[in-house]
Batch of 3 targets.
Target 1
Amino acid sequence: MTGSTTTAARHTERADDRGFDVERIREDFPILKLRVNGKPLVFLDNAASSQMPQQVIDRYVRYRSSEHANIHRGVHYLSEVATREYEAVRGRVRAMLNAKEEREIIYTSGTTDSINLVMHAYGRKFIGAGDEIIVSVLEHHSNIVPWQMLAEEKGARLRVIPCNDAGELLVDEYEKLFSPRTKFVGVMHVSNALGTVNPVKEMIAIAHRHGVPVLIDGAQSAPHFAVDVQDLDCDFYAFSGHKMCGPTGVGILYGKAQHLEAMQPYKGGGDMILSVTFEKTVYAPIPQKFEAGTPPIEEVIGLGAAIDYLNAVGIGQIKAHEDELLRYATGRVGEMKGVRIIGTAKEKSAVLSFEVEGVHPHDVGTLLNEEGVAVRTGHHCAQPVMQRFKVPATARASFAFYNTLGEVDALVAAIAKVQRVFVG
Ligand SMILES: Cc1ncc(COP(=O)(O)O)c(C=O)c1O
């Protein structure tokens, strides 16, 4: 906990009305006990990567110490255990996303890898010269650059959905972008730079009226609120394990079976085939068709433990607590003179981007670090957003369910100190 709880004390943080006990939850995260520069760590860089509870760390250790072997190809005990545990996670991800079938869940190395898979395996087969791909101005580079690479290779082009000054996508403008040439839409669920929650269900319905499939970048939604891919009716949904208390090096691509079956494999190699001769290779059915080579076995099992942990906390509780943190932080930072919040959409999730007048964001980040407060500064891999808002960079506080209102107070106190040092 931070020393600065006076303002936050007005709010009840312990076992409040919802039965959510943030102090109890924090006990699960050993890293949160760190002190940085002599101050308690205030970790507000969760949109980049979140922290791991002891339960996930323990699961890793158990796998490493008593379950490790390569999967699928062995008949011995350890290979069978590892295979069973690895495959069992697919069911947990299916349930988490409410996908229709387990075979619609593909293990990847993260959101970036998932999007690249769709670009290569779907895009290169179904998008050609003169075709158009719609993305939004808010996208992370990982949902821009692959499509640009494809457009360059095929002679296709990108169309960009604009946003208003609050950082909300303009759905009317989006609808106007469709033409018979539109072949694909890629849009993020939640903006990592601004926190905007995009109206993706409505946007998917519009695309489907034009017969166009949609990929949702769920890197910033999967960790923060319940996602139902059947309700959204998205064609693809991608997320990363390390942003939801799991390990790095693992992510998920959900795809509707009919698309996955029609797609060409992205990587060739072991484990993705039924038979190989020099004349012809017959590919394995989905999902194996897209999982060539030895996969990140322990990371997948770690992701399974992270999903179990989040389920135990309760995704509804997580959302409610994070919404409260964001509301409180928006109020407190918003009333500071000389601080501008960038991204003021009505629907937001867990992200507060801001700039301190007269201070470069990197200096803001450096001085906050001296107070033990970890925020991210820079363009957040979303340079078009910075261009849209005419800023070189922002400072970004991003919340997880283990953050406290007291930590928001610590952030505010540290920003005030930045102003005293730089602005006087
Ligand atoms: C919205 C969004 N999309 C994609 C990514 C890329 O995720 P990864 O680096 O785990 O592949 C991020 C990471 O910050 C993100 O915030």
Target 2
Amino acid sequence: MARLGSWIESHPEGIYVRPADAWIDPSQPKPRAWVTHGHGDHARGGHGAVLATPETLAIMEVRYGPQSGQPIAYDESLRVGDVDVRFVPAGHVLGSSQIVMEHKGERIVVSGDYKRRADPTCLPFVPVPCDIFITEATFGLPVFRHPDAGSEIDRLLQRLHADPSRCVLVGAYALGKAQRIICELREQGHEAPIYFHGAMERLNLLYESFGIRLGELRHTGNATKQEMAGHIVICPPGALNDRWSRRLPDPVTAMASGWMRIRQRARQRNVELPLVISDHADWDELTMTIRELAPTEVWITHGREEALKHWCMTHQIKACELNLVGYEDEDD
Ligand SMILES: [Zn+2]
Ligand SMILES: [Zn+2]
């Protein structure tokens, strides 16, 4: 069943903006798609026309080939059909946006994925007060409180320096998390070369082409075991336990994800050094954001909605969950 707002509808395959005849982050090919960011559960190939930031369009081209895309800069305002639309930073990954829409005096904001913490690879989240706020809730439980990323990076560096004969292998999503970890390491003065799995090469180059400085990076395929000892190696989470990692010098297995708060998740991946570094808002960031935007209504996506819905009700805000299909943890 579609959830109906005054002019915006939620369907399993996405959010439909009726007066603009446009879909937000649709999971099926649509004639007109507005895409918040490049992660696979939000950006898909095959749309007739895509409106997104230049960074998101570039990411989509790396993943899906040429797009019939229309770039929209942050804070540029467009009129589509009967809707004024603009994209503002969401602080999630390079190019990530909230979509702000106005129609007949009502303002609706779709958050996409977001966080409120500083991230050296993207612009910070811009709060836009609104009537209806459609928020993600990946970590929508009070148990999720992410520590400061700097303290997690310290633990990573301590472990690296503790045994120079080994490497530390960090599992991190290829889009966003990997580049953020690299930048956070650089900010803490770690200037040594960082080795990367080949699957990350194109996105690393893309980030650099948008001015994100990643320092000296080396492809693991061109390195010997000995060369990589005492260094950090970054790979996609799926490569942590596969044959590929046998070429590394006795790796300490680490993973950077909000889910590393849950011990069982770390054990499932044989992670020795869990790093709780997330690109999503934790419980405090979600509730702080809703307080700040003061919407009359909140719609919640991405799984763990119940607790946040309850929190909204106790704060006199109408809330409901949206059952969108295909939103996954690609990017936690
Ligand atoms: Zn995402
Ligand atoms: Zn998502």
Target 3
Amino acid sequence: MTRKKQAPSLAVWDRQYLWHPFTQMQEWEQEEPLIIERGRGSYLFDTEGNRYLDGTSSIWVNLHGHRHPVLDRALNDQRSKVAHTTLLGLSNPPAILLARELVRIAPRGLTRVFFSDNGSTAVEVSLKMAVQYWKQARPEAGSKHSFVHLKLAYHGDTIGAVSVGNIELFHARFKPLLFPTRAVEPPYCYRCPLNMAFPECRLACLDPVEQVLRDHRQELAGLIIEPLMQAAAGMITQPPGYLKRIRELCTKYEVLLIADEVATGFGRTGTMFACHREGVTPDLMAISKGLTAGYLPLAATMTTEDIYRAFLGKYEEFKTFFHGHSYTGNPLGCAVALANLQVFRKEKTLTRLRSKISLLARLLKPLLHLPHVGEVRQQGFMVGIELVQDRSTKEPYPLEARIGHRVAQEARRRGLLLRPLGHIIVLMPPLSVSVDELTRMVNIVSRSIAAVTEHQ
Ligand SMILES: Cc1ncc(COP(=O)(O)O)c(C=O)c1O
């Protein structure tokens, strides 16, 4: 795709005034920015009218396509009533109705909803709730204030979320600010640290997890995990049975299970929540991204009646959860989230997704014949394609090669927007994508990988 020249002032002002996230601005300042002005369905359009397939669902949030009429209408209807009021000491209809709906669709047993405004804060809330829960529900249990998490985990960018994260490149320099945690090996089967293979391994990687839980149960408030798929880690899929076993271990050693469904929630893995796939109910669940189908920033932490009740008492007992944000339970966000769930029901989104997930798996298969594709990992509509320098040794590309970035640039020229994770090419189509669009997306991914890796 050849792009026409940008509206000059916007490009100049972007470079002059903006600071983009996860972006080396020195490099950005040398380039012509791609400025997206509007969207429709699976497509985004830049200021010059060029059209791109949204291969990241606008960073994993969009579900039903851009400008969905039901979502647009819900937003407009609510805007005509009020844009924002607070949940501190007041309530509002969309927040009440949404909380009720979320309880209906969540894993059984999650009966309370605490709103916040992005994935990181939903995680922060679950960590703080877990610590306060143990203090109030089981003071005799001692000081349970620490957490277990997987290596390579990503739970957001605020300090608590970074503390339970483990991506060296993003997190290392903040170590002095972080609280201590216990990190365990993830089930990264392609690069199994135990040199075993599933299913013969019988999930041997869970033995060290059990050991940590057994040895440190007195200090552990919770174990936090992205169920089924560690997304930002590089789309690392967990083998079947892994999550269920984690649930059993947490119950056995009295450590709360915190499911971070920020990326996996709302149909991404094929079921409404990833936890549903293994029949697991976590003690706390963080949700955001798809909650408003990509319309507005909104998040929630869901929990059980048992945890909720530990915060009840006379005012002077000070068991209150002293946490809240200015935009907690924002009526516009809640109204559009309610409409999102309505679209799921009306359009039978999850049922219709099934055949598209199978099609995606079929479309991805030939990619394994590309000489620099090490592994293709898929959970529903979440895909990670791991590029390697040498397939026989699985030698990764060095970060400096920026192989994923180069593939994304190539894909952009062909009309597809991607955002890789280092050497992992990520494909995250909107759930509403058509068969033709999906086919085109995979085709462009394949040709872009070939163009970059085979002609270096
Ligand atoms: C699993 C997971 N948790 C938390 C977050 C943080 O969400 P946010 O970017 O909305 O703060 C992300 C973001 O990608 C995520 O993938």
